[in-house]
């Protein structure tokens, strides 16, 4: 919203995103798999920041794969032919395994999804693989336990960035990095936290 070169933001989800900015518009879908009703509105966009996800904790691989893999590709199917110049940015996670050899279920599923996305004909496809993400600019988790943890780690976040820079980033850095990917800044296709942090500072250099 704060970027001067961003003129329109369309948020698609199961609930509306409430902001005062005139740039922001929400499309609400009770069933995200039934996106045929909004397909005609998903045209002529420069970028898609795909941040939808679900925790793998306690989930069967079939369910997790349906939400993580099947849903993402079904939406990519709608966007791809309607936005030939789109940059698709997928929010993944550190530890994603594109080889499919990991014993960790979520890592295999996300790695398989990355491979499928990289084969698409979008202008560019990127996958962000953040580790620990420090919320900034008033962002709050909906999960009480996470809010407590973030408050605790918030005090030592500057120290963490020095001790383990390859595993730590912030919501602010992710937002800036995503925008710079859409702007055409060069980057590896899969971004580790260090890549995210470096790209976030690109516009400052």
In summary, what is this structure?
The protein is of the alpha/beta class. The chain has 5 helices and 8 strands.
Features:
four-stranded parallel β-sheet, 5 helices, 38% helix, globular, 205 residues, two-stranded parallel sheet, single chain, alpha/beta
What would you say this structure looks like, in words?
The protein has 205 residues and is α/β, with parallel strands linked by helices. It has five helices and eight strands; from the N terminus they run βββαβαββαβαβα. It has helices at residues 61-82, 105-118, 144-163, 171-183, 193-200; strands at 9-13, 24-28, 47-50, 87-91, 124-128, 132-134, 168-170, 190-191. The strands form three sheets. A four-stranded parallel β-sheet has the order 3-4-5-8, with helices on both faces. A two-stranded parallel sheet has the order 1-2. β3, α1 (61-82) and β4 (87-91) form a beta-alpha-beta unit.
Sheet-strand content, in percent, reads: 15-25%
In helices, the fraction of residues equals 25-40%
- The computed structural class is alpha/beta
End-to-end span in angstroms? 22 Å
How many helices in DSSP terms? 5
The tally of strands reads: 8
Strands across the major sheet, in which order? Answer: 3-4-5-8
Radius of gyration: 17 Å
Shape: globular
SSE order in H/E notation? EEEHEHEEHEHEH
Let me know the largest β-sheet.
Answer: 4 strands, parallel
Task: Describe the secondary-structure layout.
Elements: E1 9-13, E2 24-28, E3 47-50, H1 61-82, E4 87-91, H2 105-118, E5 124-128, E6 132-134, H3 144-163, E7 168-170, H4 171-183, E8 190-191, H5 193-200
